[in-house]
Amino acid sequence: MPSNEMVADIGLEEYKYGFITESEHVFKARPGLSAEIVREISRHKGEPEWMLEFRLKALEVYYSKPMPKWGGDLETLDATLDEIYYYLKPQEKMERSWDDVPQEIKDTFEKLGIPEAERKALAGVGAQYESEMVYHSLKKEWADQGIIFESIEDGLRLHPEIFREHFATVVPVADNKFAALNSAVWSGGSFVYIPKGVKVDIPLQAYFRVNAEKMGQFERTLIIVEEGAQAQYIEGCTAPVYSTESFHSGVIEIIVKPNARFRYVTIQNWSHNMYNLVTQRAMVHEHATMEWLDGNLGSKLTMKYPSCYLMGEGAHGEILSIAYAGDGQHQDTGGKVIHAAPNTTSQITSKSISKGTGRATYRGLCKIYDGAESAKSKVECDALLLNEDSRTDTFPYIEIEEQSATVGHEATVSKIGAEQLFYLMSRGLSEEEASAMIVRGFIEPIAKQLPLEYAVELNRLIELEMEGSVG
Amino acid sequence: MDNTAIMPERMLTQLEADVLAERYSGEPDWLSDARSEGLLKYQDLPLPTTRLEEWRYTDPSKLKWDRVSLATRDTSDAPAAAAIGYAADIAFSARVVQSGARIVSIEVPTELIEQGVVVMDLADAAREHGDLVQKHLYQAAPASVDRFAAANAALWTAGVFVHVPAGVEIEAPIRIIRCIDEDAALAYFPRTLIVAEDNSNFGVVEEFVSPDFQNACFNCGVVEAFAGVGAKVQYVALQRWGHNVHHLGMQRTFAQRDSKLDTLVVNLGASVSRVDLAASLKGPGARSDMLGLYFAQGDQHFDHSTRQNHEVPHAVSDLLYKGALDGKGRSVFRGLIKVFPKAQRTDAYQTNNNLLLSRTAEATSLPNLEIEADDVRCSHAATVGQLDKEELFYIMSRGIARREAERLVVFGFFGDVLDRLPLPGVVRELRAAIAQKIAG
Question: pTM, whole model, 2 decimals?
Answer without folding.
Answer: 0.84
